[in-house]
Amino acid sequence: MTVLDQEAAVPRATLQLLSAIAVLLASPLAFAQTETRPRIRDLGVEVGVLPPGPLNALTDVPGVKVGQTTLIRGDDIRTGVTAILPHAGNLFAEKVPGAVFVGNAFGKLIGSTQVNELGEIETPILLTSTLSVPKVADALISYMLKLEGNENVQSVNPLVGETNDGYLNDIRSRPIAADDVFAAIANAKGGPVEEGAVGAGTGTVAFGFKGGVGTSSRRLPASLGGFTVGVLVQTNFGGVLSIAGVPVAKELGNHYLKNYLEQNKGAANRVSAPQTADGSIMIVVATDAPLDHRNLSRLAARAMLGLARTGSSESNGSGDYVIAFSATPGVRIPAEGPLYQPKALLANGSMSPLFEAVIEATEEAIYNSMFKAQDMSGHGHTVRALPLEETIDLLRKHHAIPLK
Hints:
Blueprint: H1 3-25, E1 65-73, E2 77-85, E3 94-105, H2 112-118, E4 120-121, E5 125-129, H3 133-146, E6 159-163, H4 178-186, E7 205-206, E8 209-210, E9 213-219, E10 228-235, H5 248-252, H6 258-264, E11 281-287, H7 293-309, E12 319-326, E13 333-334, H8 352-371, E14 376-378, E15 381-383, H9 388-397
Parallel strand pairs: 5-6, 11-12
Antiparallel strand pairs: 1-2, 2-5, 3-4, 3-12, 3-13, 7-8, 9-10, 10-11, 14-15
Helix pairs in contact: 3-4, 7-8
């Protein structure tokens, strides 16, 4: 339980009761800011053509675990750590094939060059706040060196990504400690993944609204191998938001470059502070398809198409990265031994359905990061969550929500 949770425990119980009464009185798709916010699929919106896995989450990929530490302290600390474990064993002893794709390299991703040089990932994947990357990486190294079997290890490649949460968080204080990193790894588990303003997404902003952590998955039909692709995102970027093809940002009047366009119309006095498209996104892709580094690189590149569908501008100041790995045991890479002979790998000609899967899952994960996020105040600023009622009305208007 966070500090904020402790302070709000009593009034929250009252709000939950009132919310439950409101739900009974309102239509099924009417949501208030104090109520539990839906994932986009809860509204009946189906992104793409492929079905999700049972959890519609990164953890639909067998063996993959996610853990999070959320730091909400006083008026200024809004940050955290999200940990992704490709499997529950010693990742240094049993590495997984991996790849990193760079959309725009304005970021502080530690460990990417070795991943792409050797084609393997040997630590949990951690996401956090920009200026906390060195501290988180140092803690991750400590964690790996203490694992049983790693007593003689003298080189570890920590894989740590970030986005900048400095608008809502006192980023310069760098409050994340080693114990916060250890906790995120220790509480990693399968099952549902908490989304919204949690973990590494606690203080992030997306498209001028509250961003956060989001996840989704897609499962191929048995005739195409039955493989699963899962995606987890940390959203903190901007552009012109589109949801399932609906021009939400334009109709809500909150989008990148709006102030310049309004000034050209002589309406500068009505324009609020401009939305910046800077910020960054981290995208983590997992699959149980037996892929090597080369085809994981191809898979990671397609995730950027899912990002594009949401309206990202991929601006100069946005670090846009994809980390992809295969979690299937048959392709794990032992740390020792002169030979490595994985089981059969998926052929190039079988990749196209996986490309579609990662595009759809990335797009939906980004939406979930925003739909699940609540309003957040911190560090002297307030960022509103995506307004549900207005957004739902727009989705209905454009027939993205099917009529009953």
